[in-house]
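Review form for a predicted model. The reviewer records the input and the model, then writes brief findings.
Reviewer: anonymous (R2)
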Amino acid sequence: MFFPLFLPLLIGLSVICSPALAQKKTIGIGVVEVTPAILQSANAAGSRDVLSRIKQAMDGQLIDKVHNTRKFDVISRSDLAKILKEQEFANSGNVDVSDPNAAKAFMLGGIQYVLTTSISDFQDHHETAYFEGLGETISKRSIRLGAVAKIYDTTTGKLLESANFQIDTGGHEEKNKFVTSTSGSESDQFILQLATEMADRVANRVVDVLYPARVIAVTGDQVTINRGDGTGIEVGQIWEIYALGQELIDPDTGESLGQEETSIGRVHIKRVNPKTSQGDAEENLGIQPLQVIRQVE
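Model under review:
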């Protein structure tokens, strides 16, 4: 006769434990910055306008790319900038840091992670060539762009990851041919593609650090991964799967270095869906769901 009394409690517990209620983590994305030395160099070379357009494009693309990983709730850069500015003022010496209402560095309410990105390398190079047989002067343009991305844990203020990314359009043969690029629309498209590629690389690194790709299903030789369109995964890629072992501890610092990893298979990606991807196991030494999987470069 006591069963009706416990029924609401049991239902409540089942709801609380349901995986469907697992919450996304929140990440704040700061405005893309340009280092003073790079800004000075761009001013001297007359390419500050191009650098500014790349920066603005990266601002929007970075938010879009991180949001479309479907792993985070994203705080807009304008809100984050205000919070960080307040925290800088709190640490300037003009505020009583013992005041419980004073802003604390990286202690952002509701935000688990902060992503900051700065442009650390930039060069816009133009060449021209005259083709006598055609009677035309054709130009070639290459841009070198470098950025440093940092991920902070707001609960501790610790730096979790710092990564340097480099893109050199002159390094790609298909982009290194002499082509006419005098129109504004072609130039804008070139800049947008560059900013999009850099934002892609940064967003994918964020996900890889905080949420490593995992196997979510195995059916025969078909392996399903929790990575889909827009996360850098493409048909034809080879991904390697690892079984996780014991936790590794640095004997000098006592810091966790992650878990021991043993390669147990490779997957050839055959299909990319909006949220997942499937591939065929080319090697299978015991592939199981929840195992970590990484692209083979």
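Findings: The chain has two domains: 25-210, 215-295.
Further findings: Helices lie at 3-17, 36-45, 48-67, 77-90, 184-210.
Recommendation: see findings above.
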